[in-house]
Amino acid sequence: AETEALCRQILNELPEHFGALHLLGLSAFAGQNFELAKQAFKLAATVDPRSADAFANLGAAHFALGQYEEARASLEKAIALRPNFPLALANLGNALLHLSCVEQAIEMYDRAIRLKPDHIDALCNRGLAELALRKLDQARQSFERTLLFQPRHVEALVGKGLVGIELKNYDEAKAALDAALALRPGSAKILANRGRLNFEMSRLD
Asked: What is the rounded distance in angstroms from the CA atom of residue 143 to the CA atom of residue 126?
């Protein structure tokens, strides 16, 4: 709140102060006020149309608001300005995944991972995209690499569990889903997948 107030104070005097606009966007985003963040980043990108960060953050705000086409457009601008931008590449992959452009999403994740091999979100979300295409061995490798860097990554554990169910590796699936459930006991998604595993194993009770 203090950061936001200071930014507004600056902008009252200098409405096109890029730093204040961008920081106002970051502050609003951190506070989950995504609409304000979007407006601030949009103005920042107008003031400095060469700022890859402004367009990348604008894309993140659009994504948080469920505006996936707009997110894609902003992130593509960020990458055009800075091609080796792992965060923007991974976020573009996320937008493409939500737009059902799964192969293109995997391409963006691969580019992000080449630049930053320990990019957790890109690794895990690549696994989800590969799972959607039923590339099960690749998906398992993506989830296992994620867990190598972050062993308590819930989404990767669930993904590994789903791959295990699909490949009928039920012990592996059970271990992964149990670990995810221990980290997030009230998750409906994990419980549902644990139920699916029991069904597959004929444990109907």
From this structure: 8
- At a CB cut-off of 8 Å and minimum separation 6, what does 99 contact? 68, 69, 72
For the cut 90, the answer to whether the pLDDT of residue 1 exceeds it is no
- In this model, does residue 43 exceed pLDDT 90? yes
Residue tagged 């690794």 (tokens)? 123
* Contact (Cβ atoms closer than 8 angstroms) between residue 127 and residue 134: no
- Total length of the chain: 205
Sequence letter at residue 199: F
The chain-wide mean pLDDT, for the chain, equals 96
Between CA 195 and CA 198 the distance in angstroms is 5
- Whether the CB-CB separation of 91 and 71 falls below 8 Å is answered with yes
Cβ contact 109:93 at 8 Å = yes
Predicted confidence at residue 203, as pLDDT, reads: 93
Please report where in the chains the tokens 């991974």 appear, as a residue. 90
Give the number of other CB atoms < 10 A from CB of residue 143. Answer: 29
The percent helix, strand, coil of the chain (3-state, each to 5) is: 80, 0, 20
Q: CB–CB of 111/135 below 8 Å?
A: no
pLDDT digits (tens, 9 = 90+) for 169-188: 999 999 999 999 999 999 99
